[in-house]
Fold Molybdopterin-dependent oxidoreductase.
Amino acid sequence: MSNEAATATTAAEAAPAPEQLPHGLGASLPAADTRAKTEGTFPYAADLWAEGLLWAAVLRSPHPHARIVSIDTSHAREMPGVRAVVTHEDVPGTARHGRRNADRPVFASEVVRHHGEPIAAVAADHPDTARMAAAAVIVEYEVLDPVTDPEQAFEAEPLHPDGNLIRHIPLRHGDPDAVGEIVVEGQYRIGRQDPAPIGAEAGLAVPRPDGGVELYLASTDPHADRDTAAACYGLEPERVKIVVTGVPGATADREDQGFQLPLGLLALKTGCPVKLTATREESFLGHTHRHPTLLRYRHHADAEGRLVKVEAQILLDAGAYADTSSEALAAAVGFACGPYVVPNAFIEGWAVRTNNPPSGHVRGEGAMQVCAAYEAQMDKLAKKLGMDPAELRLRNVMATGDVLPTGQTVTCPAPVAELLQAVRDFPLPPLPKDTPEDEWLLPGGPEGAGEPGAVRRGVGYGLGMVHMLGAEGADEVSTATVKVQDGVATVLCAAVETGQGFTTLARQIVQETLGIDEVHVAPVDTDQPPAGAGCRGRHTWVSGGAVERAAKMVRTQLLQPLAHKFGMSTELLQITDGKITSYDGVLSTTVTEAMDGKELWATAQCRPHPTEPLNEAGQGDAFVGMAFCAIRAVVDVDIELGSVRVVELALAQDVGRVLNPAQLAARIEAGVTQGVGIALTENLRTARGLIRHPDLTGYALPTALDAPDIRIVKLVEERDVVAPFGAKAVSAVPVVTSPAAIASAVRAATGRPVNRLPIRPQAAVVTDR
């Protein structure tokens, strides 16, 4: 899609017509598994089976904080059909695990630190027997008062041997004595969002003859999961194999390692294959969630609306264990001022342990929470200055060459002003007609109790940014192999397809580079070299870059004999539509003829330029690259009932380069819709650490009926020179930006401050009309 596009598109409009034959980069090549998933034949992890299969169940703590006095497994072991019961005493290796910080026990032994923490696991001949046996394990608890307020965690008794404070980042940038003529303050709270995968966690463990084990899982980081499992089982990594199977899509780290590890222990103990399929309740209790966050802000600006200084305090509730909280805090502090030029910034960021459910990686972590807060502050400034909110933002937006509060120069394309102007100038949707046949347009739906006269329309804006890849010195590397034989290419790369479209991209890269139509991407397992986790657009950049380099090496192998034969360099030969031609037309042959039955292959790595940790003043080049987005939200609010209907979200985004138009549009729409859930409905509620209603009835996900019209107004294709193909990841930044834009629009409609997400009905009610 051209960056000159002036009209909005949707995913459906971007899809190719049936007569088109998509090929290579820039084409809307459909995903290879599309048909299987739509027809219901795709083999998910929950569909796995093996001869002699046993079933597993896990006993989880009913308390958020308790001391374990005793664990009695004798009744469970004596039940007919039970083959094994394991607790912390049965872990032969490292008893702790964690995504970034190994502070989480496989099974609680002395203390329970959150509701749903694993205590024991059972393997039995039948799933019902396994569940009954798990319930028969008798645990005597001494219930303790939970620490559920993250502000109290600073003074509370240590909940963990590592203490309650996970990380503190004090960012100092500029003059601390700088003061603006206009000052606005605010306090904001962001709720606990759950990834809520459509398919709950499932897996199969199969013991190996060498005493090792194979785990068949919907893992998004198989090599990291293998290393953790091997350490837990007391085995060498080569004796543990993870085969990735049936990932139903991921908006976070897909697998709960606390779910995986008991599975392998049971298989090793029984010598039989063991399967575990989590219930929806277990899924909510086990995996990590978005960090609930408390934010306090003070913005200083001059009389013309230009930012002078930003002061902020950011407190992330990590829950019981650290997981990826340190990285989330770095993103929150680094992007605390948003895509704006701020000469002076003083940010305090903390991540603390509590007895709440564990928090971890969820798309746009850290950046999403601060975006909601700094955009609310921009609305407050605009109101106090009597300025148009979009105009105020335009006066402050950053561009390439500007400096982040971390001291890092923005070297990537940052067309923030262009994005904001595009959504601001896009035509507004028509107002709904006040007629009975159009009552379905009212907030609350066709059966709602609202009255047309109580509905107010609001328009708001959000500007967001995210970092791509890992940060603060993370070694981002991926390896890929490309093989070609008999006119068919095969890509081997351990990059897991989680719905982000990597397998489709890999096929397109090889098609583009080698002119071969038939390209297959091999299944992923840990016998392949590592490719890293499937988050933050890593595989588009790092794994896609490795595939590109390997394909180019094969291309050189293919063209060198021809170039030598005709006395020219390979640069003078091109491959188009399966044909090899020279610049002067002397040479013309097909790729198949040039292969002449040979097998060509090459392996390559891609490793982006290094980053560095933030120092004691929050300074450093911590991020590899950044992506930006502007969204204009239009909402209708029933100011008597507080119900909100998102009418339209107009979006402009810098994407570097469009590699697959249909796939890109679908990813953007999915991200925006996830943001609608954050803004209006999604909040995993707890009461003193206990998760209330851990099911899809109590946790309100947005449905197709809640999705607004999503207008992709502009995609700016200014290629990032350090990224393969110049492309940027696209799905995270709409998630970050859309909740802030929706809250801004509700503020415009109601005049209320709206300082909490999701927006509660009482926050949108206007009583002083």
